[in-house]
Amino acid sequence: MTLQDIGTAPARTTTDLLDDADRYSFAFLDELSKRAIRRAILTAVAVPGYQVPFASRDMPVARGWGSGGLQVTLGLIGADDVVKVIDQGDDAGVNAANLRRLIRRTTGVATTLDRREATIVQSRHRIPEEGVQQILVLQVPVPESLRGIEKRESELRRMHAEGDYARMWVALYEDYVRHGAITRSTGYPVLVNGRYVMQTSPIPRWDVPRLHHHTGLALFGAGREKRIYAVPPFTDVVPLTFEDIPFEVERVPGAACARCGSSESYLSEIPPQDSTQPDAPSRWVCSDTDWCDRRTEASS
Q: Is 89 a catalytic residue?
């Protein structure tokens, strides 16, 4: 190709490159990148709750779309895998649909909307209602559980190394004194395997108990902060709370799913569609659309 050819060649978009399978390796990342991710995952599994640094790569997704979780998925995926991607429990969300399409184009593996068929479930904000026996990959915006109480990275490393979590307990106590309850929802801190305090971001408090003795491998990937951490199967994951203040999940008294009727699942609020009636009651539906669809079909 000459200099003149370069000047007149049509610009290639990301979609063009993804459609040209000969221009990249299987699962988009090069083999050295995938090996580095797998080594970080092995370390994370060996030391539950510990944040393992890794060389996060640039990905063809917008910032905030879960590049860390995507890299974990692409580092693990094989030709025989089946992938499910959900966004706040919904298979049809913009984030889920685009990540699913990217994974399918760069690997050729099958994707599914049914959790029971998947071997890898990548999620943002939710753990499926029935739990996951497969590999669960969570997209993490903020991996550091102590970030709200300490900004210095060197001090954060020291606190984790020494197991010095006194300031976290103080922060929870102050929250309770001010509001009469611990108000933290997403990112509720947990003690993993009796050693590390871990950030459960981005799942809501409703899903935190599901991590305790979870039957599958849970992997957390933070692309922007270049961290991977893990909860292996059947690991102790205990929410930080006081002996006289029990841990509680979010509940709306009397709320039930408008589709399947469930009152024992995590519900998302749908505000009134008619703007002329602002006082009309909100509707509630299950956040996990796959689980809700199957319940609705079974009852019909």
A: no
